[in-house]
Amino acid sequence: xxxxxxxxxxxERDCLAGVARGASSEEIARQLELSIPTVNDTIExxxxxxxxxxxxxxxxKALVLDLLEG
Length: 70
Hints:
It is a single chain. This protein is mainly α. It has helices spanning 10-20, 25-32, 36-49, 55-64. Helix 1 (10-20) crosses helix 3 (36-49). The longest helix has 14 residues, at 36-49. The radius of gyration is 11 Å and the shape is globular.
């Protein structure tokens, strides 16, 4: 899909996995021991790499590309 998609960092993958589970940014931040702004920035970075306009679209593309387990 997108050239930079394979270059998702482990933080980006972990945050997207949280989104896929339906977790809020606050829940993801708590689980990964990150700040909420860091989680949001990380998800936005993943969305840019995946050329996604929403969190849901980013998760769907990451799943299609086999970047997330699920």
